[in-house]
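Action item from last week, closing it out:
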Amino acid sequence: MTLWTFMQSVLLTFNAFAILNEQRFLEKCGLGHSSLTSGYVSATSPRGQLIGLITAVSYMRMPLVVLNSLVIFVKMVFG
């Protein structure tokens, strides 16, 4: 596995986190931001860290669009 393949897999994972809907999916699984702010989940626990990561990625949608466009361009040019 090359560094380029690893970066693509990380980008795909971030894309998957970015499209998750908080009200329809994450709240049902207990991974919504409200469970973190209500004190149900500790912010330092692994579950709290995952909630923070999902929340951060959902705010980074525009940079993800730019990175996806860059990856698509590189794939088209270099195969």
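Closing note: The two ends are 17 Å apart (CA to CA).
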